[in-house]
Every structure is written in structure tokens, then in C-alpha cells.
Amino acid sequence: MDDCLFCKIGNKKIPSKLVYEDADVFAFEDISPQAPSHVLICPRKHLVSLTEATAEDAPMLGKLQLVAAKLAVERKLTAGYRTVLNNGRGAGQSVFHLHLHLLGGRDFRWPPG
Ligand code: 5GP
Ligand code: ZN
Prior knowledge:
This protein is α+β, with helices and mostly antiparallel strands. The chain has helices at residues 5-10, 58-74; strands spanning 18-21, 25-29, 37-43, 81-84, 100-104. It has a 5-stranded antiparallel sheet, covered by helices on one side.
């Protein structure tokens, strides 16, 4: 997608603090962190949201979570961390390329706001 912010970050047309990448996914520091550790983990495939995902996307969706777990270990988020996927405007999605938030380094409340 030519005019997608996260596709451009994945293609390195827009700079970011990249923390992980492979053939399927890439991860970078959120520009406006909501916790001491706040990373966005994205598929290279442009999907607007979870709603557009199909069965063929299942391995990629699992990988987003596994990359989050790996980064959480690397970052020593031993007290706990949260992965969040905001799906649709009503849930707070503001960038329409599917992404998983990894948040850690502070306490979190439940239910989320
Ligand atoms: P959403 O609200 O869609 O779930 O999450 C979008 C996230 O992208 C937000 O946490 C926001 O701070 C982050 N973000 C928006 N624009 C940029 C950018 O240009 N660079 C980076 N690194 N993060 C961004
Ligand atoms: Zn995209």
C-alpha cells in the first residue's frame, strides 16, 4: 500500500526505531509511548484490521504474539506485559494497518479504558 504509514515504516521509506524484523513481520518503538516499553508489531502484509484476516493469516497472527513474547523476555518485562490489538475506530484504532501493541514496564488496570 503506497499511502500506508506502517507499510512505509516496514519498507524503511519512513524512519523508525526498528527493534525486530524478519520476512513476515517487523516491530518498532511507538512514537508516543503509553508505557516505559511500547512496541508495535506489524505484518509486512497490508491488512487493515483483524476483520480482514482470513485462515491463511493464522500463522502470521500467531507470530505477532510470539514476537511480542520474545521482545518481552529481551526487555525483562518480568512483572507482566500486555499485548493489545485495537480493531476499528471505536476500539481506538488510528492507523489502519493491523498492528499488535506490546506494552510493559508499568502496572496496568483491568478493565482497560
Ligand atoms: P492504534 O491507535 O491504531 O492502535 O495505534 C497506532 C499507534 O501508532 C499509536 O500508538 C501511535 O502512537 C503510533 N504511531 C502513529 N504514527 C506513528 C509514527 O509515525 N511512528 C511511530 N513509530 N509510531 C506511530
Ligand atoms: Zn500498510
